[in-house]
Amino acid sequence: MREHFLEPEVRDGVPITAEKKAVWKCLLDMLEVVSGVCERHGLRWSMCGGSMIGACREHGFIQWDDDIDIMMPRPDYEKLLEVLPRELPPHLHMQTSKTDPGMTAALMKVRDSRTTCLWEPFCKRNRFPLHMGIMLDVLPIDPDPDDPAERRRLDHRSFQWHGLRNFRYQKHALPEYYRYMPNTDVPRPSWKESMWAQDFIKHPIACVLWAILGSDRIYELRERPFREMAKTPHPNWSIYPAHVGYIKRGHLKAEWLEEYIDVPFEYTTVKVLKHYDEALTQNFGDWRTPRKEPSGHAGVIQDPYTPYKETLMKKYGWTQREVDRLP
């Protein structure tokens, strides 16, 4: 099956082009590397979100999906942050908001330098200092306190530091984000999110705070409470919304994070929670019935054949000096 994987096909009436297959192949290659590192170091991981639905229902990618998301309990995630850079091949890059200051989400990405995956507002008006190859997302799972007030405090704190990084780099970009996003669950902009407010109030304030605190300090302030909380047992865990943007959060019971099974996925196998049915039902309801959801990656351009630095120079007018500063 592997040798014929790149051939175009039709799945349940949806055409899958050779280019999309090449994107999927790139993602599977990255997953193979990351899962191998996890296996060598005894780290727990599982497919999550739409990737887990694809693994458990389709035994592969959902037809309209264009990425892979995996999740790891915080202690395993922190260990992977430590060991992964030493074990990646040269064409792969581990990306966090510590390695790439323009990275705003509080998660890890693995990117392929031989490819392109970019969002146009990040490279037109802005010159974002981050790697823009095709990406595999690695999301930390953190303890979810029973006290609603404590949950709100953690959400608020995480969104504060997330917002500071956003407004430091995303000048002009946020209003365009809403233009690209068809998902009605995402709040529409008010005057507080207008381009005027962002460019002339939030962006300058964020630049001043950035100069005072520094990128590494801001990263540590955002991550520290989750690291400390993960040192003690908790009955419920979750992926915090501020880590990845606007997502629905559902609890994952602590015992669910202890058992994993292998399931077929395209031409390989991947890990999912043994209690995947309970986890998916809690987060997605009737996950067994296929339905097309609005893409969270609207406006994203993927090219599995062209290095992102070449794309930035040829299509978006970046200079050689600008791309040389990128990872």
Task: Tell me what the structure shows.
With 327 residues, the chain is an alpha+beta fold. The chain has a domain at 2-142 and 239-324. The protein has eleven helices and 13 strands. Strands 3, 4, 5, 6, 8, 9 and 10 form a seven-stranded mixed β-sheet that branches. Helix 4 (148-169) crosses helix 6 (195-213). The protein is globular, with a radius of gyration of 20 Å. The model is unreliable at 172-189 (pLDDT under 50).
Give a brief rundown of this model.
The chain has 327 residues and is of the alpha+beta class. It is 43% helix and 18% strand.
SSE map:
Blueprint: E1 9-11, E2 14-16, H1 18-41, E3 46-47, H2 49-58, E4 68-73, H3 74-87, E5 92-95, E6 108-112, E7 116-119, E8 134-143, H4 148-169, H5 173-180, H6 195-213, H7 215-229, E9 236-238, H8 241-244, E10 252-253, E11 260-265, E12 268-273, H9 276-284, E13 300-303, H10 308-316, H11 320-324
Parallel strand pairs: 4-8
Antiparallel strand pairs: 1-2, 3-4, 5-6, 6-8, 7-13, 8-9, 9-10, 11-12
